[in-house]
Specification:
The complex is a heterodimer of chains A (459) and B (330). Chain A has 459 residues and is mostly helical. In chain A, helix 6 runs antiparallel to helix 12. A two-stranded antiparallel ribbon of chain A has the order 1-2. Chain A has a two-stranded antiparallel ribbon with strand order 3-6. In chain A, strands 4-5 form a two-stranded antiparallel ribbon. Chain A is built from 15 helices and eight strands. Chain A folds into two domains: 9-258 and 315-398; 262-302, no CATH class. Helices cover 70% and strands 7% of the residues of chain A. Chain A is globular, with a radius of gyration of 24 Å. Chain B is mainly alpha-helical and 330 residues long. Chain B has a single domain, classed as Formate dehydrogenase/DMSO reductase fold, CATH 1.20.1630. Chain B contains 15 helices and two strands. Chain B has helices spanning 4-33, 39-49, 53-70, 72-81, 83-105, 111-137, 144-172, 176-206, 208-214, 219-223, 225-241, 244-251, 253-274, 285-288, 292-319; strands spanning 277-279, 283-284. The chains are: A mainly alpha (459), B mainly alpha (330).
């Protein structure tokens, strides 16, 4: 068996970053939701919001920890697997990553301690401040890393000097052409994912009568957020797509499965792209619709993959990932609006809706992963679009070494993901303390004696 | 401007890694000791590091980050060469970090498993870091002597971390855990001392460059404070550990402070040995420094944020000062 070390290195990085992105996606959104709970409690003194805060801050802590440890892996893997990237693009990538560490990582990690364990040590005011700083920190973190990622997609503001990229203008680098779209799209993705996450787990608890009025409030918060954010996200996604057409036409051609440049391009809804024969089998398309959406003209011309021979991404995976992302996004919109409508009718606790919402708990993850596959695989064969190819920067490790570390990572991540899901299920299905009988309470107190997890004073 | 910027970043990198070794050192040390404690003591040990470990770990990200920002070619070379130990270290850090949270939240019957993974992760991370440090000092050469040297550090660094963990617990714990921390420290202090002593002798033997720097006059005399203060700090630890009256009178922090002195002196010694190379015999900091525009841009960020980070770190340590109380999310 011969494995190409380059392919193995790419799979390893993809595995790491796919695992990693799951957790920040939730924690970036969830910490703003937590801040909202905390603020509501501070303003109204309503204990339900405090209860909601303490229920969700535990889930936040677990999610955050998984994000942190898998994120540290990334900062090392640039060097262990892609040393050429830092040698060639380090002048630009380095400082952006550095600002993320300096302005975000320390802020989040330090004040999280107060958020989690500070109840008896600090005033409510300091607690609120800590929650704010953590939320701001996670958003800063997203800002810098998405700036770098966007710069790799649409590099601007640099010059070349003997193969090494030099800074010309920081402002142009940070606010590169695709950055505003990608940043907005990712932040809203994160909030939307968290909205479904929070609504899904709450729906589960309401349905099984595990909790009191606090959880109903959380459920309504999640529904309302989702109903507002889902359409906004689709709108932002559309803008992002137009930006891709302008700056990365090869990626767009792969997304739409357009093989040859032509005008009046149809919108392919479904099909099986075949790179060998350069055609899409079993194509279902709406005539001229792609031209209308992308060029706002019935007969607008769109560049096809033929213009980028040897320099375009693999078609099928980009094509399919895009459709999965859009499909899940539409589903989220439908469910969110149905839920909002039911809420308007004061029927948000109808069993069908609760079931639907709990099934959709992790729907954001699917859309986010698919979306990132579109954007990252869609950038190939480049690591910095049009400037530096991935092949040029990979480290020369033997495939045996890579295969064993890859296997170890996959096993570890599989195990951790399973543990995360099981632990959330366990936390979600634990009845609130107020609903337990006296005997159960005594039992509970015994089993958790001395553990970090003190049972909730229930409502 | 260009002249002092690489030096500035070298200093920041050294500082970040030194702070990392001290702060995450005690977390990892406590992790390695976890298996020796009973259930209640385990919770107390975890409680003593709960609010801090995450931020402590961030210092290695800053250290590696500065290497990446300021000396990208060295970053690529060092991490490619250290591929396997770096991967093992990352897996250790992953296991340690997630076990911390899982053990408190998963079903009670799984708690024991997460405790074990917490200990295993801490040991794996500490030993791998030791190995990496060793390989780095011998200039990333794969010789038998180099491997033996790396193995030596892979054992000694965990011992140092365990001592730091004990020092931390002596300050933060009470009751039976306090007693155990003293006992563990008494067991570890000698092996750690022997390790550091042997490594100090071995370093100039495995590296001619380093030998040349240390054993010439007048440098040798100027450098004397380093071994002298290290020995004094070590002697002070041993003395305090066997003087229960001093420990019980609330001077247990002396152990931790003296360990900081040892870390600081070792770091200074190492820095002197290597400077101005960034990879011994292969690259100097001047060869690999990033372009001045990049360094200057990051310099402003560092100058603005690092003092702030230090201030709020102290603030948080003050909030959670005193003996560790049982952690609760409420």
């Amino acid at each position: 068996m011969a494995f190409d070390p380059f392919v193995l290195a790419r799979i390893q990085f993809a595995a790491n970053i796919s695992f990693h992105i799951l957790f920040p996606t939730i924690s970036i959104g969830l910490c703003w939701i937590l801040l909202y709970f905390r603020t509501r409690f501070t303003l109204s003194g309503d204990r339900d919001w405090e209860y909601a805060y303490f229920f969700w801050v535990k889930i936040f802590a677990l999610t955050f920890a998984l994000g942190v440890v898998s994120g540290i892996t990334m900062s090392f893997q640039f060097g262990t697997n892609w040393p050429g990237f830092m040698e060639r693009a380090g002048n630009i990538a380095g400082p952006l990553l550095g600002y993320e560490v300096l302005t975000a990582f320390f802020l989040e990690a330090s004040f999280l301690g107060i958020m989690l364990f500070g109840k008896d040590r600090v005033s409510n005011r300091v607690h609120l401040l800590a929650a704010t700083l953590v939320a701001v920190g996670t958003t800063f973190s997203a800002f810098w890393i998405l700036s770098l990622n966007s710069w790799m997609q649409t590099p601007t503001g640099y010059t070349m000097n003997e193969g090494v990229m030099m800074v010309q203008d920081w402002w142009t680098i940070i606010f590169n052409p695709s950055f505003p779209y990608r940043f907005a799209h990712m932040l809203v993705a994160s909030l939307l994912t968290s909205a479904f996450f929070v609504a899904g787990i709450s729906a589960w608890r309401v349905r099984d009568r595990l909790d009191g009025p606090a959880t109903r409030k959380v459920l309504r918060t999640g529904i309302l957020m989702a109903a507002v954010l889902a359409p906004l996200q689709i709108f932002l996604g559309d803008l992002h797509g137009l930006n891709t057409l302008e700056h990365q036409p090869a990626k767009l051609a792969a997304i739409e499965g357009i093989w040859e440049t032509h005008s009046g391009v149809g919108l392919t809804l479904f099909g099986f792209p075949d790179e060998e024969e350069r055609t899409t089998h079993m194509k279902v398309e709406i005539p001229k619709a792609a031209s209308v959406i992308l060029t706002h003209s019935l007969n607008g011309e769109i560049q096809g993959l033929n213009e980028f021979e040897g320099e375009h991404p693999p078609v099928a995976i980009v094509f399919w990932s895009f459709r999965i992302m859009v499909g899940v996004g539409m589903l989220m919109l439908l469910v969110a609006w149905y839920a909002a409508w039911q809420w308007w009718q004061r029927r948000e606790e109808n069993p069908l809706l609760l079931k639907l919402l709990s099934l959709m708990t992790y729907s954001g993850w699917v859309a986010v992963l698919a979306g990132w596959y579109v954007t990252e695989i869609g950038r190939q064969p480049w690591i910095v679009y049009g400037v530096l190819s991935s092949q040029e920067v990979v480290a020369e490790h033997g495939s045996g070494m890579l295969l064993s570390t890859l296997t170890a990572y996959l096993l570890l991540y599989g195990f951790l993901l399973l543990s995360y899901l099981m632990t959330l299920r366990y936390l979600a299905s634990k009845p609130a303390r107020s609903l337990l009988t006296l005997q159960q309470k005594a039992q509970e107190a015994q089993t958790t004696l001395g553990s970090l997890h003190t049972p909730q004073e229930g409502l | 401007m260009a002249d002092w910027l690489p030096l500035f970043f070298l200093g920041i990198m050294g500082l970040a890694l030194l702070i990392y070794i001290i702060l995450d050192g005690y977390d990892l040390g406590i992790g390695m000791l976890l298996s020796l404690a009973d259930e209640d003591e385990k919770d107390q040990m975890i409680a003593s590091i709960g609010p801090f470990w995450d931020a402590n770990e961030t210092w290695i990200v800053l250290g590696v980050g500065v290497l990446l920002i300021a000396f990208p070619a060295a970053y690529g070379l060092v991490l490619t060469e250290l591929y396997l130990p770096a991967t093992l270290m990352l897996m250790g850090l992953i296991l340690r970090g997630v076990s911390f949270d899982f053990r408190a939240k998963a079903k009670t019957q799984y708690k024991r498993r997460w405790n074990r993974l917490f200990a295993l992760g801490s040991l794996l991370a500490a030993a791998s870091q030791g190995w990496m440090l060793g390989a780095y000092v011998v200039g990333l050469e794969h010789s038998a002597v180099g491997m033996a040297f790396s193995a030596g550090i892979a054992v000694t660094l965990p011992a140092l971390y365990i001592m730091l963990g004990c020092g931390w617990l002596i300050m933060k714990a009470d009751g039976s855990l306090y007693e155990k921390a003293i006992a563990w420290a008494r067991w570890t202090v000698l092996p750690m001392g022997i390790g550091i002593f042997l490594l100090s002798i071995a370093t100039p033997i495995v590296s001619e460059v380093i030998a040349a720097k240390w054993f010439t006059l007048p440098a040798a005399i100027g450098l004397l404070p380093i071994p002298i203060s290290t020995s004094l700090a070590y002697a002070a630890i041993v003395w305090v550990l066997w003087q229960r009256r001093i420990l019980d009178a609330g001077f247990g922090w002396l152990v931790f402070v003296c360990l900081i002195v040892i870390c600081l002196m070792s770091a200074l010694g190492l820095a002197y040995s290597i400077y101005p190379d960034i990879v011994i015999n292969r690259m100097t900091i001047w060869d690999t420094a990033s372009s001045p525009e990049s360094l200057r841009f990051t310099f402003y960020g560092v100058a603005l944020t690092v003092p702030m980070i230090l201030v709020y770190t102290v603030f948080i340590y003050r909030i959670f000062s005193g003996k560790a109380t049982k952690l609760s999310y409420e």
